[in-house]
Structure formats: structure tokens, C-alpha cells
Amino acid sequence: MSRDPHLAQTPTRRLLLKGAAAAGALAATTATSTTPALASPSSSTSLSTSHEATPFVNPLVLQRADPHITRHTDGRYYFTATVPEYDRIVLRRSRTLNGLATAAESVIWRAHATGPMGAHIWAPELHRIGGKWYIYFASAPAEDVWAIRIWVLENANPDPLQGTWMERGQVRTAWETFSLDATIFKHRGTRYLVWAQHEPGMDNNTALWMSRMANPWTLTGPQVRLSTPEFDWECVGYKVNEGPYVLQRHGRVFLTYSAGATDHHYCMGLLTADADSDLMNAASWSKSPAPVFTSNDTTKQYGPGHNCFTVAEDGHSDVLVYHARQYKEITGDPLHDPNRHTRVQKLGWKPDGTPDFGVPVADTVKESA
Q: Which of 154, 242, 263, 318 is catalytic?
């Protein structure tokens, strides 16, 4: 978004990115156990200041942005992400993380030809809640492609690649404004939704919000703003906090998010709260003043962001999942550049119990022609 005080009421990524370019800112399944999808927040994840050589294949999945990988109680990994055409939701599964690279990909839902959920199908996340599967994603009406909101699909089949995906509808927030990138987490018996949304009257594109949930598609009680773009690195090109994701470890709740233009300026920030604090009190969250994961010229990875976390095959080592490009210069609108690839690497931990993201690792395989 422009820093001009005369702001459009409905911010759009397209307009924001074009404005940034003009300013020279842009450079070119069946559950049978109770094993959690991630290592238990109280598990004894070892603390280390070193980053061991990753055994992972990178890039893991080509041309898949905003990746989400979850390890289900069946021991298999389920993968979904944004496709470059922005017109469908896909799923893959494998017993190993590296296996996702070659796993068959199924289209489980397609955008509507007209009306709601007809355009900009972005950032799907797959979650298991109460014995059913849910996908949270962003989309807009086919006739108003920047009126992006959060929507939910539900599947009662134990296998998310089977059964019927029912459209549960829109997640209603306090305002009918640009909103996207919903994620959920459960803390001490309460389920929360965290998402990005434009607040009317605010000089930004999106801030991060959180609310308790009455059910998987309905919010209850107040919604609280956790973070708004304020540092320079959050405001390059336009002012955005988006792509939140939660990891609970070592008595704390860590919330990562992405900021900056979706070119090489894209990077990750971090919020932290004590696990004993009131998570619905914005004062409980502290914000890192510097980004925690950024582009790296040495490894030639640019614009790392929109991450999630999963767990390695050993059942306890934390894994960082994100997308990045292999080049800095982009021709035209970054949203039209398809080469944001899914990547994975081991997440380190500092002696003080905070995550050590390191740098986006170099490619281990050459991109196919």
C-alpha cells in the first residue's frame, strides 16, 4: 500500500505491487492414535546453536507457494499449497517429506465459474478437527477478484483424498474487508483462528488478528490485533503482515508471519508469548524488531516466507516449511511469476529456547527444464 494518506478503502495486492514497482521497491489421513501432528509443546526438543546439513530435497515441490504440510496420526504427510493459476486446491501425501516431491497430486476442489469463491484461490491449509478434515483458504468472487475473504471446506471422510468436500462458507470477521491467510491452533483447550486483514481506517494493507472459535468456521468473542506493520522491513513496497503460523515450544507460543512485498523483500517476522499468558491480550505478545528469516545471496534463495512447521520422520525434530524463489530479478508483477517453490529445512533452537531459523538453504537438486 502507498504511504500516501489518501488510501483506497479496499486495498489490493495488484495496486500495491504496481505502486511499489513505480517507486522502485520491487526488483524485478485414517486416525487411529492420538499422536499430535507436531511434536508435543512439552516434548524435549534439543536446543542447539548449530544447523546440521539438511537431508531434505530442495526445492521440494516446484511452483507451489504458501505451502502447508501436516503429519497426520496415520504417519503420513499431507501437503497443499497455492498453485500459480490460483484456481484450485490440491493435495499430496507421502510417508516421507522427500516423498512429497514425487507424490501424486489430486485436485480436491476447483474455483467456481461465477460468484463467490471464483478467483484468487490462495494459501489453503489442511487441519483435522473433531474427526473431520477442514481446509481454510482465501478467495474472491469471480466478478470482484480483489474482494478476498476467508472460506472453509469440510470433509467427514477419514481420508481427505476421498469423500466430499462441503463448502462451509465464509469465516465472518468484524469487517467485510480484504482478509486472508487463516490458520488455527489449539492452546490449553481453546481453539484460535489467526489471520491477516485490513482494518478500516488504518494506513496499512493487513495486520494480524486472532479470535477464539465457536466451531471450525465460526468465531466467537472479540478479535484482537496482534501485530501491524511498523518496521521498515514490514513496509517495503506495501505495509503488510500476513501468513501467520503457530509453534508451541519450551513454555512459549511462537507466531511467525510474513512481511514486505512479494519479491526478494519478502521475509519472516516473529511474535512470542508466554504459554501462561492471556493470548487474547495483545500485550502478552512481544515482536522481534528484526526479521528472523530473509533472502540470502550466498544460497541464492529470495523472498522466503509464508511458512508453516511440521515434524521430521523421527517424530520430534521440528521442520520449517516455506516458499522462496531462486532469483532476485522479476519481470512484471510478482504475483504472475510462478516460481515460488516449496522448501523444507531443519529448524534450529537457541540455548534460550527460541527458534533459530538460520538462512534459507541452497538447492540440493537442479530444477527440471
A: 242
